[in-house]
């Protein structure tokens, strides 16, 4: 029985997103993946995978043509790390899942590869800096952690252009890799990316996305397991301000035995038309006995006019698992927390700042690189200060 047949057999039916627009139920694993751009029609926004996204603003990235610029990408780290250029199709741990990813695959001139040697234990992180210069560009990054290695790779995205990119992550058997992807482009920048990770036997991946800038940021993170005993921790933080759209889409494909996945994403939103979207898909295949998985999304709406959409999905094809679950919650400040802090003499604005900082701390604290953590806290503080100004202006109006 296919995944779709399994879902329908349990009572799920086709559904509609509006009059005249029936959308048939489709399992996440059955959606099209291809290196061929022609396999993906230009979306109109009614498709399941695009219905939350402002597709009109992405028109240039849907075009199957060369970019107008070559983004500046450089990497540096400890001496043991190998940084080199590769053909885009040298690894193929990633298969594009939408039109923009397929265009990026075909239009990227080459891939930048960061390779951690077998059994290397890096005490300092590898830094990959990606700067969009104002035009439209494509990129491709490969990160490979050799067998039994330990490393952290930080990808820092800045700039003002439109950037489409693919990231391939391969975690060798017994390796432990942390990848931190930071999006902090300017207020008019657009970034659409697909990250695909393959986790080896008894290997561990910590994948962290931090989105603090950009007019539109849409990141798709996909994980699959190459052997038993794999462990994936997928963490995310975002802070969307007025007019920003920050979207995260995840797919964890459990097909090996005794693997784990834990997903935790948190978002804060402030300002008119601030928007966040989180889609969490987990598939436990029939052969994936012993799986343990949980996904959680929480959103904090700080002002009127902001909106968060959260859609967790879980497909289970075997009952022989350790556990599986999902949850999501979206709300405003906890009045009890604010009251508690204010009764101790803390002004309301400061109390709100403390609540939001605490909301994010359990994720940012796991990055493990002090200078990065401090910088992110500073950026969040600046955003909270702007939010306080917005709230004060609204109160006077």
Q: What is the strand and helix layout of this fold?
A:
Layout: H1 3-9, E1 15-16, E2 22-23, H2 59-62, E3 72-76, E4 82-86, H3 99-107, E5 111-116, E6 126-132, E7 136-145, E8 150-159, E9 162-171, E10 176-183, E11 190-199, E12 204-211, E13 216-225, E14 231-240, E15 245-254, E16 260-269, E17 275-284, E18 292-301, E19 307-316, E20 323-331, H4 335-343, H5 348-364, H6 370-396
Parallel strand pairs: 5-7, 6-8, 7-9, 8-10, 9-11, 10-12, 11-13, 12-14, 13-15, 14-16, 15-17, 16-18, 17-19, 18-20
Antiparallel strand pairs: 1-2, 3-6, 4-5
Description:
It contains 6 helices and 20 strands. It is of the alpha/beta class and 397 residues long. It has one domain (31-396). Residues 1-29 are annotated as: Disordered. Residues 1-15 have a biased composition (Polar residues).
Quick recap:
By secondary structure, the protein is α/β, with parallel strands linked by helices.
Number of helices: 6
Structural class: alpha/beta
Please give the largest β-sheet.
9 strands, mixed
**Which strands sit side by side, in order, in the main sheet?**
3-6-8-10-12-14-16-18-20
Shape: globular
Mean pLDDT level: 89
Give the SSE string.
Answer: HEEHEEHEEEEEEEEEEEEEEEEHHH
Protein name: Fe-S cluster assembly protein SufD
InterPro entries: Fe-S_cluster_assembly_SufBD, SUF_FeS_clus_asmbl_SufBD_core, SUF_FeS_clus_asmbl_SufBD_sf, SUF_FeS_clus_asmbl_SufD
Family: Belongs to the iron-sulfur cluster assembly SufBD family.
Region (Disordered): 1-29
């Amino acid at each position: 029985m296919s995944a779709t047949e399994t879902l329908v057999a349990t009572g799920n039916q086709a559904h509609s997103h509006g009059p005249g627009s029936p959308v048939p139920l489709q399992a996440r694993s059955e959606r099209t993946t291809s290196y061929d751009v022609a396999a993906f029609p230009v979306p109109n926004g009614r498709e399941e995978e695009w219905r939350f996204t402002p597709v009109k603003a992405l028109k240039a990235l849907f075009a199957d043509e060369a970019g107008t610029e070559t983004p500046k990408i450089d990497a540096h780290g400890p001496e043991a790390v190998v940084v080199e250029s590769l053909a885009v199709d040298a690894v193929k741990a990633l298969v594009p899942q939408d039109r923009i990813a397929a265009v990026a695959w075909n239009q990227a001139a080459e891939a930048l590869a960061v390779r951690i040697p077998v059994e290397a234990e890096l005490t300092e992180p590898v830094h990959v800096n990606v700067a969009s210069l104002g035009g439209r560009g494509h990129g491709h990054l490969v990160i490979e952690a050799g067998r039994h290695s330990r490393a952290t790779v930080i990808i820092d995205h800045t700039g003002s252009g439109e950037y489409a990119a693919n990231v391939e992550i391969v975690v060798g058997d017994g390796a432990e890799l942390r990848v931190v992807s930071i999006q902090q482009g300017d207020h008019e920048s657009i970034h659409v990316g697909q990250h695909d990770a393959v986790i080896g036997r008894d290997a561990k991946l910590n994948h962290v996305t931090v989105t603090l800038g950009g007019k539109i940021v849409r990141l798709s993170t996909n994980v699959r397991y190459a052997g038993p005993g794999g462990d994936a921790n997928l963490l995310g933080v975002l802070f969307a301000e007025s007019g920003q759209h920050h979207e995260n889409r995840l797919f964890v494909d459990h097909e090996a035995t005794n693997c784990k996945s834990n997903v935790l994403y948190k978002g804060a939103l402030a300002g008119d038309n601030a928007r966040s979207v989180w889609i969490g898909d987990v598939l436990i295949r029939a052969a994936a006995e012993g799986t343990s998985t949980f996904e959680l999304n929480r959103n904090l709406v700080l002002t009127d006019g902001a909106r968060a959409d959260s859609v967790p999905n879980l497909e289970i094809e075997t009952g022989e698992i350790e556990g599986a679950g999902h949850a999501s919650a979206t709300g405003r400040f906890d009045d009890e927390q604010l009251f508690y802090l204010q009764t101790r003499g803390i002004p309301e604005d400061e109390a709100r700042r403390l609540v939001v900082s605490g909301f994010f701390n359990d994720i940012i604290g796991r990055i493990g690189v002090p200078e990065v953590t401090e910088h992110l806290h500073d950026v969040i503080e600046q955003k909270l200060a702007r939010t306080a100004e917005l709230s004060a202006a609204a109160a006077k109006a």
